[in-house]
Structures are given as structure tokens and as C-alpha cells.
Amino acid sequence: MALPRCLSAISLAAAGSLYVMSGIGKQVGDEWYVHRSALVAVADMARLDAIQGALAALPEDAEAAINVVKFNVRSGRVSLLEYGNFDDDPFPTLISSWTHARNGSGFTRRSYTDSLNPPILHRKELLVQEAHPGRAAWCALTSEAEALGLFDDTRAIGFRMNWERLIAAKGYALEGAQLTPIANEGSADGSAREETGENIHRHRTALARSAISAPVQLLLRHRLLTRECSFFDYGCGRGDDVAALAGDGFEAAGWDPHYAPDRERLAADVVNVGFVINVIEDPAERVEVLRRAFGLAKRVMSVGVMLYGPGAPGRPYRDGHVTSRGTFQKYFVQAEFKDYLEHVLGQAGMMVGPGVALVFKDKDWEQRFAVGRYRRTDVSDRLLLRVPRPVRAPAVRPTERRARGPVELQPPHPLLEQLWRLALDLGRLPDALEVPFLVELEENFGSLTRALRKMSGAFEAGLLERARTARQEDLRLFFAMQQFGKRPRYRQLEPRLQRDVKEFFGDYAEAQAAGMKLLLEASDPEGVGQACHDAAVQGLGWLEGDHLQFHVSLVERMPTVLRAFVSCGLVIYGDLSTVDLIKVHGSTGKLTLMQFEDFAGSPMPLMNRRVKVSVRRADYDVFEYGSTFPKPHLYRKSRYINEENAGYAEQVAFDEALEAAGVLGDTEFGPTASELSEALQLKRLEVVGMSLSRSRTVPDLDSRCGSSFTYRSLIECGETQARLGLANPPSNPESYDALYDLAVKLLDPIVEYFGAIRLTYGFCSAELGKHIKARVAPALDQHAAHELNRRGEPICPRGGAACDFIVDDEDMREVADWIIANLPFDRLYFYGSDRPIHLSYAPTELREATEMKAGPSGRLVPRKYVTVQSGS
Fold this sequence. Notes:
The chain contains 29 helices and 33 strands. It has 872 residues and is of the alpha+beta class. The protein has a 6-stranded antiparallel sheet with strand order 1-2-3-4-5-6, covered by helices on one side. The chain starts with 7 loop residues before the first helix and ends with a helix.
């Protein structure tokens, strides 16, 4: 009995494929893009009606701005896109998108006007090239790279500020699946002593660098190291950091027991102990080195160590390991490192990256840095992003105006622009001590007061008010977190913080009260839930029920109540330097912190650790994966980052491809790693870098090829193959891909509609082809799939794959008519109502149907096939 005749999904896919071959628009996965001016060429009236209906439903002012349409060929979803300056800009920027559901339930609008990194139209097609040679390297950053600012200038594909930095260029290396610092390990005093029984060569760990080390880059990024500060590298190794800084105008010096033993150990504002203590095998000496180095620091010391990585660290020795090069390494975990520093120095250690901490000698610097950790770093950038550059009229006499005609407007003085940006960063007018270019201002304007007055007249006052609100919220967060520690008296606050208290709160008591109020807001489930919803609307994370999950880089852009909620959780757990994703549980008062292997470099990173923090109970549980529990994949990663994250374009493309492949299933967390691998193999897919590609492996012949056949059933069929008993396997992996496409796109639907079919001729290898002489054309019939001849050229340049089949007890003309009406075939040859049909599939999907009719001589002659319906 034939199966129910229902193939609407396949018909939709077949219809969608027609637009690729017709040259209208550009299809990426299931999304079809077309410029609005090309809609007149769309032949499918159902599709055109859906698009025109969506356009008509838009508000009039929005409809006029739409210039690109995106249509999902699987779901029928229409997205209307507004790109700025489409015709003249080679990479137009997406200003807004309106997504219209197929059921007509309305629009979902996303605005990119405040985005620092909005999508762009690459080649005006929104395509990301999968074969780009730098793709894998640029995607090799981890979540720590986002937090640490480990970026480098790279290509810009898909998004305006889609930057990435090579790991090695910023002092990190990828070992296995984990980002670890590249050590610049000198040590305190050369090789180990004879009495240790080991010949430890500390100097061998000092590496020649092509870029500044990670701890020093963090000092620069946090503006703790400037040209106004002196710098000393304690255990400088080969001295690459010192040389790089000195060459850039910094006051820098260093000492190393092996490479620079005769140099003086100097006191400095900033002291760096980069990957030194971890190469010292004597624990007591380690303590002395830290104390001596901290004694040289006037303001701050940075300390870098090696963290445990995924591989075997070496042979155990004392409290560390001896490596194959005869060097010693003491590895740490992040929490252990922080505790160790505080125990040795009696000072709070602030973790700023994986294996990197700061210890402050100058308490004013410490306060300023602590305030900065709760401060948004890009307020002025975002405020100025869409504001037109202000202009001013030149000062001319009235007679000159009449003589010269219209006044030519000029931009404000560059110093006023600098002053304006400083005011926006502060959220208030700056004090004289806060203006680093005060001398230049006074030379040009006479005084800071006059410069501020001119600035206020040249720029939009509303921006400063918005900056004031943002800065006040940052300070509220700082004072909220101050409630968990010992609060200094007002006169102990550093001067800038005192000015902030007076400006934004009036007095210290009001500032502390504002912080306490924020803590109370963060304990209100309803308020936290609303904040989660507000964040999701802005594209900051993914909202599922009352759970908001987002990348750690988005924390500072969250509503203040969510920032406070996360910060409260960190008071209980620690810091975010090893965290990739955060989940806020709005109703339960819990916070989940997740760490993955190679978060940015992998499209489906594996989870290493999950920490569930109960903010209300002030407790947390840690779940480690990899031994007792298998490591789960993170699916749909693009949900949790946004367009400003490096690698976002590639991730979106991958997630869409994986979704379209249908391998994720219906479970909440998706398939296990082994289940996913099996599902991908069945669909002839594999993950390569940040893309989902066709498999390059040769499958087991008895594995499934679609739902109705195995590869063997398509390979070992036909009279000649059966008579000779030839194995007949394809040698090219692309041939297996082609057989899979033939089975899934054509044969499975035919079986689903008509019932069982009988294959009479399938794949034909070059060896089998030698024995088939009559009525065959290997260069045309596609039975050879993607196999090559002796010259390394395709046997059949058409590609794809073909088979001959018959449906017993069915009129094959009816079968042919149905195939033509419903399936995306490449070529079909009809030989008669009781004869097998030749059917092929190739990505070209030409849909050429030919009927072989006997001529006067009895020889079969090809004629265009005419269906019963069209011929009647």
C-alpha cells in the first residue's frame, strides 16, 4: 500500500532552490536575500505576496527605508532590512530589521543604531567566506580574550568592528583546548642548587617574544602603566617587554638572574613579576621573591603564573612538575593563586585575567581601579556613535558676512572635542586636576572655565545628562559592593571619588544609601526578571522563561540591577576571569557561571565547569565535567553573544547551518557529544573550524544512507554488478555525499509517497563501467558520481549521483509526473510506463525531464517529457 501523499516540506525546499539557479538574490543556508529593486523578477507569486504583505504591514515611514528583503525558504519568515547608504557604501551598515512571522502575528524590530558593531552587508550579500586562510586562527580566542582585551586587527567580514587578535601576539598560546599564557619566565637566581638532587634550568623557560606579555598588556589596558609611570620587570627573562616599552617611550628597566644579573633592582611605580614564581622550585624562595618585588613597587605590582592546562604537566617534583626540558613549573588554579598572594603579601589580590593578578601598594590607585571595575568603558563611544559632528560658525564681521554670502560652518576646536569626551566619560564637568591637557586648554582659551563655557555651547547638552545617568548608576554599583567590605571614611577616599560623591549624591551617606537601595533591588525577583527582559530586548543575551543567559563580555552593558545581582554572586564565588557564560535565574535568586573549552574558537564549545551560586543562601556548588560527567556541548552559541563579539558572524552562520541540518533534536540541552557525532555522520556532515561542511570520510557501507537505504544498497545493485560480484565501492568521499543527497532529496520522498521501490542500477565505479558496454554514457549519466578517471579528471563532469528504479505495481508515468511536480531533481529519463526511471540529483537541480521514444528505426530518441496534466 502506498504511504500518505504529503510532502509539503520537500516541495517548499524544492521551490526555494529554484531561486538559486535563476540568479535572483543570494541564498545562504535557508535565508534568501534580495534587494527590493529585484522583487519585480520574482516568479513565485506566493513568495512575492508574503513579501509585499510584510512591506504593506510596516509603518509608512519605516516601509520607505527598507531596501533589502530576507526570506527563509523553510519557514516562510520575512525580514525587512534597512541598510544605510546602500548604493554608495561598499559595505552598508544595517540600521534596523523588521521580522514578520509567517502567521502574520506582527513584527519583531531590532535597532542597531546604538550598536558599536552593527552588521554590514559584505559584498552586499551578507556572506562569510568559509575558506578564508585566517579563519581558524582568528577564531581561536577564548572568553578570557574578550575580558582581557586580547584583540588584534584582522579582517572585517560581516560586522563593522569584527576584530580578533592572534593569541600569540598578545602573550597567550592554545594548548589542547585551553588558552594559557606564554610564560616569560626568568627566575630569581638561575639554576637550582646542587642539593636538590635535580638539575633544574630555570633560564630555559625564558622565551623570545614577538609581542608584549599578557600581564604587561593588562597593565596597559587598565591604564595602570602609562608613559608618566616608571616600570620595572622583576625577572625579565630576555628583556623583550622592557625593550618594547622603552622603544615606545616608556621609562622601563628590568633585572634577571640569568640574562641580566648585573643590573640594579630599581623601585618603580609599576613592578611586574611575570611568570617568575612558577619556575622557582623552592617554596620559601618563592615567598622571598614576591616580597622583594612588592617592596620595589610604589603603586602596583602585577603577578603572572601558569595555570593548569589540559595536558600532562610533566613529572611530579616537590609541589610542582619537572618538564621534558628540565625546567620546573609550579601550576596554579585561579582561586589558589589569589589565596597564595594574599597569604604571602598580606594584601588583597585583584584577579584581572587567567593567572594574572594585581596587588596595590598605593591605596588611592586601588580605589580608582576598584571603581573602574564597576564602570562602563564605552559610554562616550556609544553616546557619540550616532550624533552628527557639531559645527560652529567662524567669527566674522557683519560686513564680511554680506560680502561672502552664506557662512561656512567649521567644526569645534579639537581641544574642545577632547574636553567634551572627557566630560562624557566622567558624567560631569571635569576638575582642573582631571584634565591632562590643561596647559594646552589655557594657552588656547585662557582658562578651563572659558573652555568649558565654549564647550557647552558647541555640543548637545542632552548627551552629558545621559552620561551623568550612566555614571551615577556605575557609582551606585560600586557603593553597593562596598557594603560587603570594610568601608573607608570619606577623607580616605581618593580625590576623584570624593568629587563624584559630592556631584552625584551630595554626601557620603547618600552614596552609601544609594548602594544599599541597589542591593535591595537586586534581591527582588520581580525587578530582576524585568531587567532580564529589558536586556534581551536590547540583544544582550537569550531569555528563556525568566532565565537570561549571556556572554561575560556583556556584563557591563546589562541593566544596573543585573550587574548588581551578578556582582553579589561574585562576592560569594570569586571573579569572572575564567567564566564564559552567565545565567541569571530571575525567580530563584541563583546565578550559574559556566566555563568552556575554547569558547570563542569552537562553534560548539564543551563545558568544563558549571558553578551554581545561590545569592540568597550565600553558597555555591561546583560541577566539574570530563571524568564523572561527560562534557556537554553548548549549542546555539550565537544566542548568548551579540554582534559586537569577535566571531559573531561566523557563529550565526554555523548555528543556522546546524539548525537546518536537523541534528539537535527536541531535548532541552541537545544531543550528547557522541549522539551529535553519530547524527552528523548519518547526514554526511562534519565540523571544520567554524563551519559545518560536507564530510570527507568514507562511511561504512552498511550505515544508513537516508531513511530508506544503506550505501551498500545503492552501490551493489544492477545485473552486471550482481553477475560479476564486484565490490564496486566509491573511492571519493564526495561520491558518498552525492549518494546521500540522492537518497534524502529524491528516493526517501518517493518511498514515503509510493511505498517500496526497487533499484535496478545505482553507483557505477570505473571498474564496473568496463563491463557495461551497451546503451551507457558514463560522461553524461551521473552513475559515476564524483569518481575520477586515470587522468584525475571527473568521469562525469555533471557531478551529483544517479540511479535507475522501478515501483512495482505502479504506472511509472504517474511516478514521473509526481517527481516532476514535487522534487528538486537534476535529470529524469522516462522509458515507459512499465520500465525503470533514470533519476539524478546534483546541486544544479536543473529539473530536466526527457522521454526516450522509439523512432522509425526502433532506436530510442530523446524528446522533452510532457506530463499528463500539461499535455491534456
